[in-house]
# Entry
Amino acid sequence: MTPQERAERSAQAMWANDRASKWLGMTLDAVGPGTCTMSFEVQDHHLNGHLICHGGYIFTLADSAFAFACNSHNKNAVAQQNQISFLSPGKPGERLVAVAAEVSLSGRSGVYDVVVTGADGRQVALFRGLSRIIKGHHFEEE
# Structure
């Protein structure tokens, strides 16, 4: 099995059970070894009192992309620590895209960076996630 096939099968297994990302309207756009791209359209119910996308939804988008990236090796991984910096607001009606990339994977610990961009390509947020591999796999390998 190639690393790309492993990433795709891991993502399929996770996506089947990911009620939160689906409920928020996210799509799983691409996955690869240590990488993931997810997106969602900022809708009325995502807006805060300033009529911009609530930061919690932007964080959740970045966190979901991080989760699929760090689980792409068919090893169960969970978040150990995450941080986010908001750079510009998410606007009503625009599609936000989160691209996660593995920076380091050593033993059971991983570091992932996620860039969230707006429809015009501007950076909306920068997210760094630290993962920890736990027991288990997403599917049995032959």
